Amino acid sequence: METENRPRKRNYSEKSGSEGSEDDDYVPYVPVKIRKQQMLQKVMRFRGKGLTEEEQKDSGGEQKDEDEGLGPRSNVSLLDQHQHLKEKAEGLYITVFFCIFDQIYAALMSIRDFFKKHYKSDPKLFSAARHERVRKKYHILVEGEGIPPPIKSFREMKFPQAILKGLKKKGIVHPTPIQIQGIPTILSGRDMIGIAFTGSGKTLVFTLPIIMFCLEQEKRLPFCKREGPYGLIICPSRELARQTHGVIEYYCKLLEDEGAPQLRCALCIGGMSVKEQMEVVKHGVHMMVATPGRLMDLLNKKMVSLDICRYLALDEADRMIDMGFEEDIRTIFSYFKGQRQTLLFSATMPKKIQNFAKSALVKPITINVGRAGAASLDVIQEVEYVKEEAKMVYLLECLQKSPPPVLIFAEKKADVDAIHEYLLLKGVEAVAIHGGKDQEERTKAIEAFKEEKKDVLVATDVASKGLDFPAIQHVVNYDMPEEIENYVHRIGRTGRSGKTGIATTFINKGCDESVLMDLKALLVEAKQKVPPVLQVLQMGDETMLDIGEERGCTFCGGLGHRITVCPKLEAMQTKQVTNIGRKDYLASSSMDF
């Protein structure tokens, strides 16, 4: 009886049924491994590669097999279990990282699809053996992936008839080696590094494609007010920027005369009124040619926008970096809103430019026509020992070597003014330009010289960077430049477009011995006559110059010394040490705080 009156115990099923309302919010626990597996499946599904049922079963089976070796009853220590789980977590992290990286890389390289319509190769040209024969014939060295085929005719490059007629008027019938490989590369939408001696036709390599790209955009959707630029070209000097702007204007005018839409190109350089330059931008601009300083000023004041800019060309990039514009150029990069096609052109390729190119370009194709930093083989180089006090008198004798026009270079502004005044007193029709003169005076002097109204132009290195004077047969270096790269740029003003020229250089005891050694090596490389004063020069470690992959200095490209005694590297290190000493006491910018 007692057992009957004793309250009956409630079993587990009844208890769970009565408390079901309390467990409605219960979330089942999912182990860490299963959560990671689900996360991986989610990522794979996002990429469009979801796992099949068989793969899920296999992965599940593998997971069970792996899990059997873990747990409290396994013979594996906790330390080994921890290491095993840590390796699996790292593997999953790496997988997810590469998934994200592939998506970003695909977005960056999607610009190739956009440019496929601009450049269509002829199926007949798809012969690797033929490509190599053409490159070998024209001494073209290429590096990179997916290199487009070289094209030996402007007509095969699919340019409009107006541009072909314009090239013929200029006497340009066949493309130069840098144009044979460079123009197809740019038209295919790839980033490019172009290395070629001065006077090899680098300007046309980037100006003709930019005109084609802008023409395509204008036909598709006309530019409205204050829109643009679509293409941007940056030059180190005002004179070079003006010259490049003139080339673009020439071909745009020819296209307009043939019925094509009007293409507007703005010139933004210092020494000119900003209001006058902005008049073109207000109506919508397709292309812009600028110097770094003026462009930075316009960007900071938000007078120019690079929101739709997709094409950037850096002309004479080595000179811009040497002049201290590297930080400005990197700042300009930050104003681009979308992916851009970047082109870098240089006559020399020191280590600093190589490092800059690696950080600024995406998988570029490097096209090298001749050794970087080598002098043009079409220039006869003559080096003469002249005392400082006899230079001015001997200069008049040098002018008798060839008919005008003649270009004279000097390092200092005071020397330029003195030479100009001396030549005027001797009855020579001469003009002079340097950084101390205003822009209007410099422009008039260059125009008078180009139109052959003046016989002699005296200038500092302002005129050595890319300016094209087709009629010049003689260049005189009144003094030896402090860097061998400047010497290469100076003598490159003559011997252009296949013509032969003469370069006369005055040297004396005041010249730096390391620069003279570089000059000697440059003469030997170009198979030019080495004067006795340079033959006497010998360095103790001259036999060591050929050791390693590259001859000479790997930092500045000089052939007469190694990097251990490079004066340019030593000067840069001294400058850095000086700046560090200053920053210890005073911040030079907001980055120092």
Quick overview of this protein structure:
The chain has 593 residues and is an alpha/beta fold. It contains 23 helices and 14 strands. The protein has helices spanning 2-5, 12-18, 32-46, 53-68, 78-109, 111-115, 128-137, 161-169, 177-187, 202-220, 238-257, 274-282, 292-300, 317-322, 326-333, 351-360, 391-398, 413-425, 439-450, 484-491, 513-525, 532-535, 567-583; strands at 140-143, 192-196, 231-234, 265-268, 287-290, 311-314, 341-346, 365-369, 379-385, 406-409, 430-433, 456-459, 474-477, 501-507.
Report on this model:
It catalyses: ATP + H2O = ADP + phosphate + H(+). This protein has 593 residues and is an alpha/beta fold. Among the domains are: 114-369, P-loop containing nucleotide triphosphate hydrolases (Rossmann fold), CATH 3.40.50.300; 379-511, Rossmann fold. Helix content is 45%, strand content 11%. It has an 8-stranded mixed beta sheet with strand order 1-8-2-7-6-3-5-4. Strands 9-14-13-10-12-11 form a 6-stranded parallel beta sheet, sandwiched between helices. Strand 11, helix 19 and strand 12 (456-459) form a beta-alpha-beta unit. The protein is globular. The model is unreliable at 9-21, 543-549 and 580-593 (pLDDT under 50).
Low-confidence stretches: 9-21, 543-549, 580-593
Strand content: 5-15%
Overall number of strands: 14
Whole-number mean pLDDT: 79
Taking the alpha carbons of the first and last residues, their distance comes to 91 Å
**Structural class label:** alpha/beta
CATH superfamily of the domain at 114-369: P-loop containing nucleotide triphosphate hydrolases
CATH topology of the domain at 114-369: Rossmann fold
What's the architecture of the domain at 114-369 in CATH terms? 3-Layer(aba) Sandwich
Sheet of most strands? 8 strands, mixed
Tell me the strand order in the biggest sheet: 1-8-2-7-6-3-5-4
Number of helices: 23
What is the gyration radius calculated from CA atoms?
Answer: 33 Å
Helix content class = 40-55%
Shape: globular
